[in-house]
Amino acid sequence: MNSGSIAKLQEGFRGEVIQPADPGYDAARKVYNAMIDKRPALIVRCVDVADVMAAVEYGRENKMLTAIRGGGHNGAGLGICDDGLVIDLSRMRSVRVDPAARTAQVEGGCVWGDVDHATHPFGMAVPCGFISTTGVAGLTLGGGIGYLARSFGLSCDNLVSAEVVTAEGQVVTASEKENDDLFWALRGGGGNFGPVPTFEYNLHPVGEIYGGPIVFPMDRAEDVVRFYRQYINEAPEELGGFVGFHMAPPLPFLPEEWHFKNVCLAVPCWAGPMDQGEKMVQPFLDVVEPVGAHVGAMPDPALNTAFDPLLPTGLPHYWKSSFARELSDGAIAAHLEHGSKVPSIQTAVHLYPINGAVQRVGADETAFAYRDVNFSPVIAGMWDDPADN
What we know:
Blueprint: H1 3-11, E1 16-18, H2 25-29, E2 42-45, H3 49-61, E3 66-69, E4 85-88, E5 95-98, E6 103-107, H4 112-119, H5 136-142, H6 149-152, E7 159-165, E8 171-175, H7 180-186, E9 198-202, E10 208-211, E11 214-217, H8 221-234, E12 239-247, E13 262-270, H9 277-287, E14 292-293, E15 296-299, H10 300-304, E16 317-321, H11 329-339, E17 348-353, E18 375-382
Parallel strand pairs: 2-4, 3-4
Antiparallel strand pairs: 1-2, 5-6, 6-9, 7-8, 7-9, 10-13, 10-15, 11-13, 11-14, 12-13, 12-17, 16-18, 17-18
């Protein structure tokens, strides 16, 4: 890489070309996880497909290690690299909804809050994750577990097509009809196959949901988790959500004496007919007496943003997740022992359900092969003070 080659790149580039000596370099290299501190040789912020093509060609010609950044949310920091090229799509955040076809065209720099903002006025949604700042690209390419997974499948199961820039710098469409092998790989295979400037999704009629957070005392957590294990396997697919372990934040619906105490949490989400919502969520409230709850009918984006204030960009993060066919008694015991010790209000130990519609897709139909499991246990460590790293 030299100044001449960079100048050539800049000639036809509509976005930003950012080098280490530039004033905006340190801000441009920051990602969601403050544990990640990498220094790329060049960051290119694309604004259209032509920019992405030029960036890929530049990386190939200069034999540069290349990372692709969408929403920048990846916990492992895979959207940034040391001494290489970062193709940054974060300025590409357009969403176009076709309500008649029930599809949405979503650019690769979007986060799910962008999608919710565009689709909710039409009373529709794409199955996404659990917070609105998650990147669309990373979640979809990795699979995409969320509140609506039992109802409508993973995010990747709702992908209709994807526009991909190949390693040769060519633009191709991947779908069931075109480049179907690439389409298979994109759905769960991660960001290994090229930048995706545009995703096309199926939309589902979800305007309001019924649910919200319910907080239980830790000494009754075993009853809650055992109830959840049975109920989430028997309930209609319109019921999603999770249970987990937190340190209670100072929220208005929680008595002050419970603030910053370790608690068990349930967050049910009913996406079926609203007149059935209270009936379907009530068993969570009846299993043991909660210490506080904020449950009712609400716009779907309201639940997707409920945890955003706890998780701003720039916290240190360390995540692990797995898959379990069943939630055994031993697994419950391990969660009770260790989940009860989460050390910060941001840290979360969650049990996500991935049965229902997720299991109607065959293990060989997409690169996301975990179609015979019922739960995904996730440990997400987040905290404020870098001294605690």
